[in-house]
Amino acid sequence: MEKMFLLKTEIHQFATVQEFFESQKLTKSDLIITNRFMAEGKLKGHVQNASLIFQEEYGSGEPTDEMVMSIKKDMPNDIQRIFAVGGGTVIDIAKFLVLESDGSIDEMIMKEKEYHKARELIVLPTTCGTGSEVTNVAIAELISRKTKKGLADDALYPDKAVLIPELVESLPYKFFATSSIDALVHAVESYLSPKASEYSKMFSCKAISMILKGYQTVIREGKDHWNQLADQFLMASNFAGIAFGNAGCAAVHAMSYPLGGTYHIPHGEANQLMFEAVLRMYERKDPHGRLDDLKEVLANELQVEKETSLNALYHLMDQILVRKPLCTYGIRKEELPVFTESVIEGQQRLLNNNYVELSYEEMMQIYTSVYDK
Ligand SMILES: NC(=O)c1ccc[n+]([C@@H]2O[C@H](COP(=O)([O-])OP(=O)(O)OC[C@H]3O[C@@H](n4cnc5c(N)ncnc54)[C@H](O)[C@@H]3O)[C@@H](O)[C@H]2O)c1
Ligand SMILES: [Fe+2]
After folding, report:
1. By the 8 A CB rule, do 99 and 175 touch?
2. Which CATH superfamily hosts domain 173-369?
3. Ligand 1 close to Cβ of residue 9 (< 6 A)
4. Which of 3, 147, 220, 337 is deepest in the core (most CB within 10 A)?
5. Does 238 contact ligand 1 (Cβ within 6 A)?
């Protein structure tokens, strides 16, 4: 008997931040992890009774093991509920803090033991990408290992995900682009995963459809238009999170992690750098299978011929977020074998979900194909 589908997190939607926090009756035993611009912006006047931590005071960019450890040291005692109000960075930090553990983050991720949940987790996403509000995964850069790695444990499922579109509206275009590309990659990778079920595929397809419709509107109406679709992108990202929370992500994510870890390329941008090259390799190895179904889904959404639908998808994504060759980020060619080895050694959790198996040589070909063009 195989498990087909699981959604552990309650999903709520509120029209305004005010309405949500009025329903919560915050006290000092509630910890809000967020950014200062949120506390002084949309959250102002609603969270003064809670304990507050601002993520950016512990370092810039996406979570590192050191950042999480410093925040953990500063967390007040007796916190009962953690509210994460932010993008994947803030959400994943909060997830680590929910667990009872006295080891380092590196140990927590590498040892893969069972964890106990010590407090409630309520997540209010402010980007439209990670889907982390409904998954059991938390990801951090392990500084000494020069890569990112995820901890997957059921104790990490948030208790509640609260979707409030007005929280997302202030997102700058660049992070709208990187986070929504991440959501699209979640939807596609989970659709192609051997673990996909009819249930997860339904969420993948709906997310793909909503994101592609949104992208077409943004390209037609102009970049400033995206935040009028914030509610659609927020929900699409949540659907994609539900899909990959069940069926998993795969090689695109696995191969993007050394880029995020070593070169601090934002997660969605790093995914976009690997996406086409991985799918081209999949197509070369097995053009039939689920990839053929995906082409049909895309052809219907983009109103193009099935055989050109993947190219149409790559083109659309490039219009949302411009891609640059890996060499322009300062990556050296000699590092590509190191990246490949680190993916094979450290990302088996994701590689197990590949549409087809990829060898060392094939992963090297993928990295090389996006290195200088
Ligand atoms: N745990 C999971 O299941 C999962 C899944 C996918 C990605 N991730 C992780 O999520 C992280 C990326 O998250 P992200 O793409 O949401 O970006 P992010 O959280 O890193 O945010 C990107 C930038 O946008 C800013 N920002 C966020 N919300 C804003 C708003 N409403 N207005 C103005 N500025 C805002 C942030 O301060 C930051 O500077 C990566 O570390 C990635 O590994 C986790
Ligand atoms: Fe992702």
Report:
1. no
2. Dehydroquinate synthase-like - alpha domain (1.20.1090.10)
3. no
4. 147
5. no
The pair of three-digit structure tokens given for residue 116, joined into one six-digit string: 């106990």
* Length reported for the chain: 373
Which runs of E-coded beta strand occur in 57-119? 81-86, 99-100, 116-117
Please provide the CATH number assigned to the domain covering 10-168: 3.40.50.1970
- Ligand closest to Cα of 182 equals 2
Coil vs helix vs strand at 160: strand
Q: Which of 208, 202, 165 is nearest to 184 (CA)?
A: 208
For atom 12 of ligand 1, which residue has the closest CA?
Answer: 88
Q: How far is the CA of 245 from the centre of ligand 1 (A)?
A: 17
The domain locations on the chain are 10-168, 173-369
CA of 91 to the centre of ligand 2 (A): 13
